[in-house]
Amino acid sequence: MTTTPIADQAAVLAEGMADQTPSEALEAFGAEQAELDAAGVPSGIATAGSLMPDASLLDVHGNATTLQQVREGRPAVVVFYRGAWCPYCNLALRTYERELAPRLAERGVSMIAVSPQRPDGSLTMAQTNDLSYDVLSDPGNHIGRALGIVTRPTDRVQHAQASLGLDLTEVNADGTPDILMPTVAIVDAEGVLRWIDVHPNYVTRSEPARILEALARAVR
């Protein structure tokens, strides 16, 4: 297992992006990140011990499924991410493939990634990063809303995204700009939420080692 934390990888990524991104967009993103840090984790987040919410989801080919169907009675680590357009999401999911997925497979724990994007975006995420685990779409963010992790970029940030060629209403399955706070949830075999780690600031992510430690405590 590599010893390079996601946080360090993200810092290198941010430095590289700073050289390629217009200053106006950088200022908008920086201001948003500061606001997210100041606000912290919102109230109303689902708590351990509650039933993990589920919904009608779509796989990378647009076929209907659910978390329960994909889990097949196994415990699961469910990663909620913003979309294939997000460089920090690509970094995190690629790291999870390398450092987390094999360890989960050894324990009979499934890994699932969920975002609000259309299935073609999920397919792009899976293929670009050679992901072995299921990548699903949740049109309308039904699970995210039940968990309390749905957010919407400010108008300023949406304008900055548009200047870079990104329109969330085009990539999201429900045609809205609503996205998810990066979150990792651990679900036991009975479908009960045992651990949840929410990151309002999308630059930060749950580190693989922390997820494995939580899994060891939550699922025996």
UniProtKB/TrEMBL annotation:
State its Enzyme Commission number(s): 1.11.1.24
One MF annotation (Gene Ontology) recorded for this entry: thioredoxin peroxidase activity
Q: Which GO terms describe its biological process?
A: cell redox homeostasis; cellular response to oxidative stress
According to UniProt, the reaction catalysed is:
a hydroperoxide + [thioredoxin]-dithiol = an alcohol + [thioredoxin]-disulfide + H2O
Leader peptide range in chain numbering: none
InterPro entries named among the record's database cross-references: AhpC/TSA (IPR000866), Peroxiredoxin_BCP/PrxQ (IPR050924), Thioredoxin-like_sf (IPR036249), Thioredoxin_domain (IPR013766)
Q: Name one Pfam family in it.
A: AhpC-TSA
The enzyme's main class, written as a single word, is oxidoreductase
Q: Which UniProt keywords apply?
A: Antioxidant, Disulfide bond, Oxidoreductase, Peroxidase, Redox-active center
Please report the stretch or stretches of sequence annotated as the Thioredoxin domain: 46-217
Give the UniProt entry's GO cellular component terms: cytoplasm
Keyword Repressor annotated: no
Q: Sum up the protein's function in the record's words.
A: Thiol-specific peroxidase that catalyzes the reduction of hydrogen peroxide and organic hydroperoxides to water and alcohols, respectively. Plays a role in cell protection against oxidative stress by detoxifying peroxides and as sensor of hydrogen peroxide-mediated signaling events.
* PANTHER family in alphabetical order: SLL1159 PROTEIN, THIOREDOXIN-DEPENDENT PEROXIDE REDUCTASE
- What is this protein identified as? thioredoxin-dependent peroxiredoxin
Task: Identify the species of origin.
Answer: Streptomyces coelicolor (strain ATCC BAA-471 / A3(2) / M145)
